[in-house]
């Protein structure tokens, strides 16, 4: 496992970047804690789901979920390499304090072609038949983590992830993402369209956010009826929301920054 860290300032301490690790609210607490532990390890350490779960009270399911979350965010990168001589495939793991984004996360170095057929494989002279594989024990430089592949995305989860890519401040992850995705699934089944839900959930955030963005997104989803009201002739698209109650009101208003009557009365 390769550890990519910002230079440490003192031995025996792990200094973490607030923006990329400690206060990165798009990551769950479990993912942030696991990332902090991985960054404290020396370069060349070997860890997988089994060993990580053995060092904590969380089980393998929680550890695997956190690793998948870090991988999706670009902090945990796996590359598949093949030895050009033996053809042996291994996985190299790298942990980044500053996430690798864009194409760098998905790019995998090209695998060299295995030795051509008929070319004798390396072996110990005088041992075995000509061309037989070497009997020397092979050592793996990196232990491949036993992480399950990402689960299939649902329509609700895909919608929320898309909104998070458009506006990183609204990105959800971990349990909040799964919980709100299930509610979005129910709304889609009740007749809501993706466009209507996206317009309501991704409405502009208030200038001053006192609650977490996740709480605002959850409140916007929770106040929606299971079945959308039928549109009347001449109704226009809903574009603006009341920013009152620290962004949790969400009642429709005529223009940006306007406050609904209920919030004006409460403030008076």
Q: In a nutshell, what does this entry contain?
A:
The chain is mainly alpha-helical and 268 residues long. Helix content is 35%, strand content 7%.
Characterize the structure shown.
Helix 2 crosses helix 4, helix 6 crosses helix 7 and helix 7 runs parallel beside helix 9. With 268 residues, this protein is mainly alpha-helical. It is elongated, with a radius of gyration of 25 Å. It is built from ten helices and three strands. It has a three-stranded mixed beta sheet. Helix content is 35%, strand content 7%. About 13% of the residues have low confidence.
- Class by helix and strand content? mainly alpha
Tell me the distance between the termini.
59 Å
Q: How many beta strands in the DSSP annotation? A: 3
Helix content: 25-40%
Globally, the shape reads elongated
């Amino acid at each position: 496992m390769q550890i990519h860290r910002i230079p440490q300032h003192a031995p025996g301490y792990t200094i973490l970047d607030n923006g990329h690790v400690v206060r990165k609210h798009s990551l769950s607490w479990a993912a942030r804690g696991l990332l902090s532990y991985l960054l404290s390890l020396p370069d060349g350490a070997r860890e997988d789901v089994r060993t990580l779960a053995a060092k904590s009270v969380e089980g393998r399911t929680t550890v695997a979920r956190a690793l998948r979350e870090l991988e999706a965010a670009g902090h945990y990168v796996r590359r598949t390499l093949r030895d050009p001589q033996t053809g042996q495939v291994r996985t190299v793991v790298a942990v980044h304090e500053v996430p690798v984004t864009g194409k760098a996360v998905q790019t995998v170095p090209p695998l060299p072609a295995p030795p051509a057929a008929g070319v004798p494989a390396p072996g110990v002279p005088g041992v075995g038949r000509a061309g037989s594989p070497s009997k020397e024990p092979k050592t793996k430089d990196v232990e491949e983590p036993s992480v399950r592949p990402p689960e299939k995305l649902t329509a609700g989860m895909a919608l929320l992830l898309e909104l998070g890519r458009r506006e990183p401040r609204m990105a959800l992850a971990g349990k909040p993402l799964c919980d709100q995705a299930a509610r979005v699934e129910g709304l889609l089944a009740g007749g809501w369209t993706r466009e209507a839900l996206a317009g309501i959930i991704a409405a502009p955030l208030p200038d001053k956010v006192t609650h977490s963005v996740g709480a605002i997104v959850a409140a916007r989803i929770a106040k929606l009826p299971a079945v959308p009201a039928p549109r009347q002739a001449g109704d226009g698209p809903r574009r603006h929301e009341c920013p009152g109650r620290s962004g949790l009101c969400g009642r429709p208003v005529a223009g940006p920054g306007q406050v609904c009557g209920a919030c004006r009365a409460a403030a008076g």
